[in-house]
Automatic annotation (TrEMBL):
Species whose genome carries this gene: Cognatishimia maritima
InterPro entries according to UniProt: PdxA (IPR037510), PdxA_fam (IPR005255)
Remaining remarks: The active site is located at the dimer interface.
One GO MF term attached to the UniProt entry: magnesium ion binding
Residues reported in the UniProt entry to bind substrate: 130-131, 268, 277, 286
Needed co-factor(s): Zn(2+); Mg(2+); Co(2+)
A Pfam family reported for this protein in Swiss-Prot or TrEMBL: PdxA
Protein name: 4-hydroxythreonine-4-phosphate dehydrogenase
Pathway: Cofactor biosynthesis; pyridoxine 5'-phosphate biosynthesis; pyridoxine 5'-phosphate from D-erythrose 4-phosphate: step 4/5
Record's subunit section: Homodimer.
Residues that, per the record, bind a divalent metal cation: 160, 205, 260
Gene3D superfamilies with a match to the protein in the record: Isopropylmalate Dehydrogenase
Length: 326
């Protein structure tokens, strides 16, 4: 069965997203099929592009030009200077991509970076970011952020909160839900029948028997014991400082971490340029490059396309795996 093309959103047109879309087409035009939802007038124009009327036309166009599903924007696309008049269209493009994925016209959604301040300046955007908006559009209450590269997959249980707030935010229910969504996502979209999950401790040395905190023994261990009894392949809580060397990584398929930096430092150290942001728990595949709009270098032609390229590649792999398992 042929895989439907991937929908790549424009993101903030004053950022690096559109130039990276062009570079990604150059790298991938013989490898996979995607189309960009954007205003053709905003494109840098360094590669040929062709407007399509629908996703089904993308495969024919892809070898010779970047397929564009045209979407009107009402402001200028000046590098590094977001125009509030574009905010509504940035949001509408995301909604359009999700609609195409939900109906099967697109096999996955890959989102170029947005700028939350630009959206709030130009429209009433009440969500903290991309992920929460996608969950709203999909009608799901809880999603999980995974960062992935060839060498490692990591999932932070708590994300963008102050370190001092992590112990009070980290609950047994939150940890359990994070592990369940991660396991289901690895089964459904990565082709792993029995995913092996390593769970980091919260405290140094995973609490060292209570000498460095009780959260590991009192909160994490009971959750893991219960899930293991249900058939989950789990190890932990493990000292975070010994989880990420090569031999340790070979023993698991994903690492569940307790807070943002515990997860993101190792993956960005291992592969800063090619890390991909994956949202698990949605009823469709969503990936994104693991960087922002980079206003400071937008329009200069120096933005590295590696993360966008890998995000599209991973989206195709996940969509193919899901198609095989359903």
């Amino acid at each position: 069965m042929t895989l439907a093309p991937i929908a790549l959103t424009s993101g903030e047109p004053a950022g690096v997203g559109l130039e990276l879309a062009e570079k990604a087409w150059e790298a991938l035009r013989k490898e996979l099929v995607f189309f960009l939802i954007a205003d053709p007038a905003h494109l840098p124009g360094h590669v040929p592009h062709e407007v399509i009327q629908g996703p089904s036309e993308a495969a024919d166009v892809m070898p010779r030009a970047l397929p564009i599903l045209a979407h009107p924007f009402f402001g200028e696309a000046t590098a590094g200077q977001p125009d509030p008049n574009n905010a509504e269209s940035v949001v509408d493009v995301i909604s359009r991509a999700v609609d195409l994925a939900m109906t099967g016209a697109a096999s996955a959604v890959c989102t170029a970076p947005i700028n939350k301040k630009a959206l709030k300046d130009g429209t009433d955007f009440p969500w903290p970011g991309h992920t929460e908006f996608l969950a709203y559009l999909a009608g799901v209450d809880r999603v999980v952020m995974m960062l992935a590269c060839d060498q490692l997959r990591v999932v932070p249980t708590t994300i963008h909160i102050a370190l001092k707030d992590v112990p009070s935010t980290l609950t047994a229910a939150l940890l359990r839900e994070t592990i369940e969504i991660t396991r289901n996502g690895l089964q459904d979209y990565f082709g792993l029948q029995e995913p092996r999950l390593a769970v980091a401790g919260l405290n140094p040395h995973a609490g060292e028997g209570g000498a460095m905190g009780l959260e590991d023994a009192d909160l994490i261990v009971p959750v893991l014991n219960d899930l293991v009894a249900q058939g989950y392949d789990l190890s932990g809580p493990l000292p975070a400082d010994t989880m990420f060397h090569a031999a340790a990584r070979a023993r698991y398929d994903a690492a569940i971490c307790m807070y943002h930096d515990q997860a993101l430092i190792p993956i960005k150290t291992l592969d800063f340029d090619k890390g991909v942001n994956v949202t698990l728990g949605l009823p469709f595949v969503r990936t994104s490059p693991d960087h922002g709009t980079a206003f400071d270098i937008a329009g200069k032609g120096i933005a590295n396309p590696s993360s966008t390229i890998e995000a599209l590649r991973l989206a195709a792999k996940m969509a193919s795996a899901h198609q095989t398992t359903t």
